[in-house]
Amino acid sequence: MGKPDTLLRVEDVLICSGIEPMAIPQGGAHVRAAEIRIPAKFAGQPTVTATVHPTTGPAGAGTVFGIFSIKVNRLGDQTQVVTQVVIQATNVQKGVPVQGDFVCEYVVIGKAEGAQ
Question: What percentage of the chain has pLDDT greater than the value 90?
């Protein structure tokens, strides 16, 4: 779980970006997942753009992972301001486990909550 490297506000728009290491979930090494917690709330659903690529191991020899799920959730209560983004990707060779490290590069853009 990580936080954005960049959190920028331009008038009423929030722009967040970063690179997050991806973990192997319980389902096995053919899937990777990353969770980002943004210390802000968006008015409505923000736009999330992401790519996944290997950084080490045998996956660096051309393995392709495709993103199949991006979920945006509000967490906390009135005092805590957090937006959770969960990105999941899988090997395009269905069910084939892949060893090695992957990262997710992402950009989240949306109108800030409370902006006029």
Answer: 64
CB 56 within 8 Å of CB 101: yes
Q: Are 108 and 16 in contact (CB under 8 A)?
A: yes
Amino acid letter at 28? G
According to CATH, the topology of domain 6-111 is: Immunoglobulin-like (2.60.40)
Tell me how far apart the alpha carbons of residues 11 and 9 are, in angstroms, rounded to a whole number. 6
Q: What is the pTM of this model?
A: 0.89
Token pair of 2, please? 């990580």
pLDDT in tens, 51-92: 999 888 776 667 888 999 999 999 877 677 899 999 999 988
Instruction: Give the span between the Cα atoms of 94 and 39, in whole angstroms.
Output: 35
Paired residues of 48 in beta bridges? 108
Q: Six-digit token pair at 57? A: 């191991």
- Count Cβ atoms below 10 Å from residue 112 Cβ, excluding itself: 16
